Automatic annotation (TrEMBL):
PANTHER family found in the cross-reference section: ARGININE EXPORTER PROTEIN ARGO, ARGININE EXPORTER PROTEIN ARGO-RELATED
GO CC field: plasma membrane
Keyword Nucleus recorded: no
Intracellular or extracellular location(s): Cell membrane
Entry protein name: Threonine/homoserine/homoserine lactone efflux protein
Classification of source organism: Bacteria, Pseudomonadati, Pseudomonadota, Alphaproteobacteria, Rhodobacterales
Lineage: superkingdom: Bacteria
Length: 200
């Protein structure tokens, strides 16, 4: 493994983070409704679980999902229902005052972990990316470096998102369109959950 492999992995990782998936939407929504600390905390949880999925992929967990499809289906179903529950909560509270949704950082951190824990596609995605980018038979040290790199990149990106989204100008714009923004985010999350539930 060399630096070019890590650079290619980081480009793929940044593209995945920036895509409008549940992790990105929850990170943005948490920052806007609960503040910078909660936004950073949810990002730390998201990043930790994403890095753990990469570790699982590096050490062969996708083989378990292939060997035992029921385990993959069970985790996927629970994850889909969890996303749909979050979407329902977002839709229902769209008209609530901003301070009604403030949550402590520890709760946000736990939510970040759960969002990525309940998405077993993460380990399959990570496995596919890792196989394409990295050479086979990497050492334990190289595997640990990839995991640590993933963790640091996720934490930096989500912290930057929390800091940027918590500025006064962004918050003011969000407040003006809160109802519609929350409902669009809820619809997207609900659709992602439904797609995950129905996807074979």
């Amino acid at each position: 493994m060399d630096l070019t492999h890590l650079i290619a992995f980081n480009i793929a990782l940044l593209a995945a983070i920036a895509s409008p998936g549940p992790a990105f939407l929850v990170a943005v929504k948490t920052t806007l409704t609960s503040g910078r600390s909660a936004g950073i905390a949810v990002g730390l949880g998201l990043g930790l679980m994403a890095a753990l999925w990469t570790a699982a992929a590096l050490f062969g967990l996708e083989v378990v999902f292939v060997a035992f499809p029921w385990a993959y289906t069970a985790v996927k179903t629970i994850g889909a229902l969890y996303l749909m529950w979050i979407a329902y909560g977002m839709w229902r509270s769209a008209r609530a005052p901003l301070n009604a949704d403030v949550k402590p950082a520890r709760h946000a951190f736990r939510q970040g972990i759960l969002i990525n824990l309940m998405n077993p596609k993460s380990v399959l995605f990570a496995a596919a990316v890792l196989v394409v980018i990295f050479p086979p038979n990497m050492t334990l040290g190289e595997n640990l470096l990839v995991i640590a790199n993933h963790l640091v990149v996720e934490w930096i990106v989500y912290t930057a998102i929390a800091i940027g989204m918590s500025t006064e100008a962004v918050s003011r714009r969000y407040l003006r369109g809160k109802v519609w923004l929350d409902r669009v985010a809820a619809a997207v999350l609900g659709a992602l959950g439904l797609r995950l539930l129905l996807d074979r």
